[in-house]
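I hope you will forgive my troubling you with a question about protein structure. The matter concerns a single protein, recorded as an amino acid sequence and a row of backbone structure tokens. Please examine both parts with care and let me know of anything in them that strikes you as inconsistent. Thank you for your consideration; the sequence and its tokens are set out here:
***
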Amino acid sequence: SGAGKGTICANIRKEMPNLVYSVSMTTRAPRVGEVEGVNYFFRSKQEFETLLSEDAFLEYAKVYDNY
């Protein structure tokens, strides 16, 4: 967070336009300006835990009581 990953990704995508950015899913509330499906996929904890039970994720982490 705040380490410049977005800038690095943008520069790489300029050189390799066929790359796509992986959008993460979270159970936290959206922050001002964040767009569903662009910055994150925002889901309830219940929705997220259903997906967990279906092995829908390659990886996940729980941070500050949110996924």
Observations:
- The longest helix spans residues 5-15.
- Strands lie at 24-26, 40-42.
- The longest strand covers residues 24-26.
